[in-house]
Known about the structure:
Layout lengths: L18 H10 L10 H26 L19 H4 L6 H16 L1 H5 L22 E4 L2 E4 L3 H11 L18 E2 L8 E4 L11 E9 L2 E6 L7 E6 L3 E6 L3 H9 L5
Amino acid sequence: MADFIKSDEIKVDTSKAPWMEFAKAELGKKIRELAADDAFITSLRGALALDARMREAERTLAGLGQGGPLLGGKAGAMDPSRYSLGARPLRDPMPGVLGGMEASRLDQRNPEIGKYFSGVKSDPIYDKKGRSYDIAPTYVSADRGRITAWCAAFVDWCLKQADAPHLGYATAKSWLDFGTPVAHPVYGCITVIKPSSSTGSTTGHVGFFVESRGSNVVLLGGNQGDAVTEDRFKQSTVLGHRWPTRINQYLLADRAGVAA
């Protein structure tokens, strides 16, 4: 049977957090999400919306002549309404095409955010078959180009710049299983916030702990108000604090009586 060490016996040096220098440098750049700001895409989307309204009006007018109290409601043999395939309009592919164009434009407009996704993958625990994929900085949803939630990618990037242990997953909640648990938050530790309407994610939010302020914690993180900021979160929303360690190495060091 394996020999385990209690968590309160694990010695971790939390006196230095070199990754915070990189996080603060990004904060100083005032990095925030920039809109696609493409007049061509906007005008095409407006034209498609107008065309859809006109087509709907034409269908409504055409339907007035197909039946009713005066003309009767019985459809003829050649009436397309009797056949589901003929009555079902085909989906216009153009909105999806515009969404792809918009996503590409967002990628071009946000290179600073895009760099955070280098080497970051999806957490296989959230895939039914345990697969992991590269994460793109932008994607298409409901025919709109969108920027991928980037709080976890920001944390991972800052740790990599400092040559510190990092997770490599773009899912906030995944960071609860990373490194060493910290009972009381210290400057630079990784803090995970539970999902809420303010986090804009089903897996919560992750950032670096700066300080406690009353009933709040202040985190330095990405994708906070669509930007790199220092922002406050309720203490009650904190799921946990972690210190970036290669846990097995620290356990071995502890067993040898060496402070990690």
